[in-house]
Amino acid sequence: MSRQVTAKDITPSQTVGPFFGYALPFAGGGDIAPVGDPRTVTLHGHVLDGEGRPVPDALLEFWQASPEGSRAGAPGSMRRDPVTGAALGRHGVDFTGFGRVAVDADGHYTLRTLPPPADAPYLGVVVFARGLLHHLHTRAYLPGHEDDSLLRGLPADRRATLLAVRERDSVHRFDIRLQGDPGKETVFLEFR
What we know:
Oligomer: single chain
Structural class: mainly beta
Strand content: 25-35%
Number of helices: 2
Number of strands: 11
Helix content: under 10%
């Protein structure tokens, strides 16, 4: 016996969004580094579709180990105050290891963090965007970490899609291309 599927039976992974503008982004979500830390680096860029146009409703999550190698992050960095909705644990003193950033209308994002350690020399990036039924995983490598085993296993043109480009002292650009020519589309990782 077949049953008719109704709108209440559909989950977000079975529909095309956007769903990301409400309750997920939060103030200070792109501030992983403690305020005033001299090691702070800025990572910024655009999320682009296959034609090179900005994706204005993307949401990015960043995960990384501290410069000392800890993967614990600050306690409470993802809790919310039930009254104000502000993120508890994001008080600007502790390294959180986690950031969540919504892009602006031009598909641009900005993240302030600390350099990752040599044994985990990347920022893990999770991309949520319109048209994606499942989020995408990738990595952003700051200059100087090109000898990582994942990067060594990729052809040069694919490797380049994971490397942030230094613009000036402590400022790096990392664009994410969701589709396109193999030499331009960002390498995405599959976890099983």
